[in-house]
Amino acid sequence: MLAGLLALLGIGNDPAHASRLLMVAVCDFVLGAVALLPQWARAEPNTPAWLGLPSFLVLGLSTWSFGGSASGTGPFLVLLYAWAALHFPRWILLAYAVPATLAYLVPLILTDQPPLILGSAFILMPIAVAVALLIEAQARHLREDRERLARIEQWRGAMMSTLAHDVRTPLSTVRMVLEELRTEAPPPVVRMLDAALRQTTRITRLAEGLLDVQRIDSEGHLQLDRREHPASALVKEALSHIRASDGDVTVDVADEQTLYVDKQRFEQILVNLLTNAMRYGAPPVVVRVVRENGHDRLEVRDHGPGIPAGLRERMFGQFAAGGSEGIGLGLWIVRQLAAAHGGRAFAEEREPGVAMVVTFPSLSSKG
Prior knowledge:
367 residues; alpha+beta; 2 domains
């Protein structure tokens, strides 16, 4: 298309060859229209390479139309080679050498150009082929890397989904057995059974988190059941799933404060933040909920060593902080759940410690 427009503009500079230039422009536009046909997307990968042959022919026609001036042909020939290098294997680039050379030389011969001009083909063509081969090598490496990453991602997704589904069924049976034993067990055994039940709950949440990752990756979103809830009740219920000593966690939530959230997802957010704060930070951990500028703000602040500024954003990536005690999905899931609510998740510096903050649009802002 660009070559066609340039041919039309050339009519103004060379009216004597207007008919030839118009013919070149028409050929360029027709070739461009053919290249845009949707059938090429369904063809074999190398089939569009046939478009290169009429393209070389049009380039030769353009050189002849301009009276043997190859100043416009050379750059477009290199561009044509670059296009081919991005899409086709190297053998096609080498096969192009003969028609490309003919497209460049034949018009020059027909217009009686001197040997010096004809000799330029022995400089231009090797350069065009060399540039194309370099581009093809880089494009091939990028395609191979992308295919390898796609295979790894597919394997990871299948592994996570299988693990999550296969773990939940036996966990349900284990939990039922533990709860049944707890009803008639003496107090010392009850404490041990409670610890076992907490661990089964933790593993269940991990499996659900892996399923959330798969749902977010495959669907790009999560379905939420958002309702207005008392914030203090939500926080207290989430705290019941955390094993913490007295004084480890402090709650700063007003009695009148409400949250317009999906109850289950909010609990998942808060449990992840609390677990992260108690694992990597230091007590006391302060849970605070306030309303600011039409948004409700959940803040979980610890008094540990903090997080360097350069790492705060990376902490919310997938597998960013995996280790012996986790796989690094907690904060990433928090960010995805916050985004599903229409809010944000981020880290703020504190002295000492760090505050993990999640915002939610309030019900009043929805109205």
